[in-house]
Automatic annotation (TrEMBL):
This is Uncharacterized protein. It comes from the Eukaryota.
């Protein structure tokens, strides 16, 4: 599974990094804090999952198939980079061990756009 590590946690900069990965406009997002042992299933339109780990804590996120709980991969905190960008696949879920924040980024359609 592809994981892009970065030191930035700015939503604007992270959305731009997602746009660079796919060459399309990406949505802005807000960070959502997950509690220890909290499970979360991102929206089916999510193209990138952003994971932010606080500098002072150790944390890990396990990613698994939602339908059968089959383990896919994990993402852990890293002292050199605090945010990880993960291309997301619908039908997956995650579970946070420790303290972490996530953001969900979608592709913006150019059709009917007024901006």
């Amino acid at each position: 599974m592809t994981k892009i590590r970065t030191e930035t946690s700015s939503p604007e900069e992270l959305s731009k990094k997602c746009e660079e990965q796919i060459g399309q406009r990406c949505s802005r997002f807000e960070w959502k804090s997950l509690k220890d042992l909290e499970e979360h299933t991102p929206d089916s339109k999510t193209m990138f999952l952003l994971v932010n780990f606080p500098e002072s804590s150790a944390a890990i996120i396990y990613i698994f198939e939602h339908a059968n709980n089959r383990f896919i991969d994990s993402v852990s905190s890293n002292k050199k980079a605090h945010t990880v960008i993960i291309p997301w696949v619908a039908g997956r879920s995650l579970k946070c061990f420790g303290s972490c924040k996530i953001g969900e980024v979608e592709i913006l359609s150019n059709e009917g756009s007024s901006t």
